[in-house]
Amino acid sequence: MARRELRDDQWDRIKELLPGKASDPGRTATDTRKFVDAVLWIARTGAHWRELPDSFGAWNSVFQRYNRWSNAEVWERVFRALSGDPDFEYVMIDSTIVRAHQHSAGAKGGLTRRKRWAVRRAG
After folding, report:
1. Largest CA distance in the chain
2. Alpha helices in the chain (DSSP H)
3. Confidence at residue 1, expressed as pLDDT on a 0 to 100 scale
4. CA angle 56, 62, 66 (to 5 degrees)
């Protein structure tokens, strides 16, 4: 069994919104689910396209198809269709997602006093 990023019920919700169905004009896609799984793998891992596992297909082919779908606003159409019924199963924020600036570590907290660099006049 192939590893999937989408469960069957999730796939059933979006498959009619994607191009490449037999009812669509042009070429019929045979691997649309694998392609969507590849894009979700990239999004989940944050990896570069070249690091896409071979089981998803050639990285450049996946990347080119992703760009075509982006230009055709397919992802936006899917997002709009799914945004009416949000699934918050994976919503969480922790330290692996929220990053602090590199200079924020180890600094003394609170307000600092300004140093006076001018010498006071004798009065």
Report:
1. 93
2. 8-14, 32-45, 59-71, 74-83
3. 38
4. 135
